Amino acid sequence: MNISIVTVGKLKEKYLKQGIDEYTKRLSAYAKIELIEVADEKAPEQASEAEQQQIKEKEGERILAKLHPDTYVIALAIQGKMLTSEQLADNLDKLATYGKSKIAFVIGGSLGLSDDVMKRANESLSFSKMTFPHQLMKLVLVEQVYRAFRIMRGEPYHK
């Protein structure tokens, strides 16, 4: 299985990089993983609704340019479906069974994802109703994908 994680913005925090590197290394035993970063737009503190929309659209265009037409896209969004780790594992297993070997998880910038990216997504996933920094979500996502593969293989994992 080929898994891409497409995120907006460059990861700067060393502690997040270390965690992501660790789980990416562990995950590489189960799947080919690619981490793709697209540039974020500078957003003024008091951006108007129209400015926010424009920023999301520009970031969305960059995200869409990284997605192949045959890729199954899962967008991370607060309004997405919440799953347990076991349900995520089951979903990934079903995708693999039905020939969906290219999967991309998409994490938007601080303003979220554009409407065009949400329309392109095959499904949306939420980790919580709370808001998290998008760079922290990248670490949480990589860990959960790793956990999902452990569950699919019947290997032990921390509960």
UniProtKB/TrEMBL annotation:
One example GO MF annotation: rRNA (pseudouridine-N3-)-methyltransferase activity
Domain of life: Bacteria
Chief site of localization: cytoplasm
Cellular component aspect of the GO annotation: cytoplasm
This enzyme's EC code(s): 2.1.1.177
Key words of the record: Cytoplasm, Methyltransferase, rRNA processing, S-adenosyl-L-methionine, Transferase
UniProt subcellular location: Cytoplasm
Catalytic reactions of this protein: pseudouridine(1915) in 23S rRNA + S-adenosyl-L-methionine = N(3)-methylpseudouridine(1915) in 23S rRNA + S-adenosyl-L-homocysteine + H(+)
Residues annotated as binding S-adenosyl-L-methionine: L76, G108, F127, S128, K129, M130, T131, F132
Complex and partners: Homodimer.
Role played: Specifically methylates the pseudouridine at position 1915 (m3Psi1915) in 23S rRNA.
Family: Belongs to the RNA methyltransferase RlmH family.
Protein name: Ribosomal RNA large subunit methyltransferase H
Organism: Halalkalibacter akibai (strain ATCC 43226 / DSM 21942 / CIP 109018 / JCM 9157 / 1139) (Bacillus akibai)
Name of encoding gene: rlmH
